Inverse folding.
């Protein structure tokens, strides 16, 4: 069975401070892992993906995530938050060889001036 | 750029009506998906299709059906709309490559009165 747990439903940071959005997964297979972002009234956009290559994955807009198999985690980080990062973020896991994607419940990031 | 379009951004229907939501992609993707998005639940897969006229149930198919008569178009049908189907509906497409990204449409916010 597969599942994705996003540990925080809301995260609030000040502009210029680091961002950490936490994601844990469970999977019986080697997973593919993704982070998507959804800005208000916009569709989902891929930030980054892990597909069994390098464990540290760099994405768009300065985001990165590290796959830690021992901790079954795929946390999303950014060194310095920008106001435009305010959005909802989804961690997603996919089985290899299948086309089913399991979404976490989402984390809303608020960035304070 | 990949483009996934959905027929309506906002839709209001009455209980018992038959509702059609249409999705069109312009990248010749084999796989297409319908999700519903509810606060605190993330995205849940309703149905997906891996080829013309082929479909598979997702996690919450009850009350829905789908149609894929052409490769670029994937329709979601609510046979008899109910108030608990009030939600945001998102369509996505991707290639058959298992590690490829899903591309999402902007969503249709459906309200059933």
């Amino acid at each position: 069975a597969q599942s994705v747990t996003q540990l925080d439903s809301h995260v609030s940071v000040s502009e210029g401070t680091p961002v950490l959005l936490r994601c844990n997964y469970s999977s019986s297979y080697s997973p593919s892992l993704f982070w998507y972002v959804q800005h208000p009234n916009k569709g989902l956009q891929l930030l980054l993906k892990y597909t069994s290559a390098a464990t540290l994955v760099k994405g768009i807009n300065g985001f990165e995530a590290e796959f830690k198999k021992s901790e079954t985690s795929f946390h999303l980080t950014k060194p310095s938050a920008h106001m435009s990062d305010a959005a909802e973020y989804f961690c997603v896991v996919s089985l290899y060889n299948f086309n089913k994607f399991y979404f976490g419940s989402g984390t809303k990031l608020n960035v304070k001036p | 750029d990949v483009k996934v379009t959905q027929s309506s951004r906002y839709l209001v229907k009455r209980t018992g009506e038959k509702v059609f939501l249409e999705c069109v992609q312009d990248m010749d993707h084999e796989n297409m998906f319908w999700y519903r998005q509810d606060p605190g639940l993330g995205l849940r897969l309703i149905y997906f299709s891996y080829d013309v006229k082929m479909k598979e149930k997702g996690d919450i198919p009850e009350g829905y059906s789908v149609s894929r008569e052409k490769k670029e178009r994937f329709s979601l049908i609510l046979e008899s709309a109910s108030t608990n189907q009030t939600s945001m509906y998102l369509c996505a497409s991707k290639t058959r490559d298992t590690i490829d990204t899903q591309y999402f449409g902007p969503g249709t916010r459906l309200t059933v009165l």
The interface with chain B takes residues 4, 9, 32, 34, 36, 41-46, 49, 51, 90, 94, 96-101, 103-106 of chain A (CB under 8 Å). The first strand of chain A starts at residue 3 and ends at 6. Chain A has a mean pLDDT of 90.
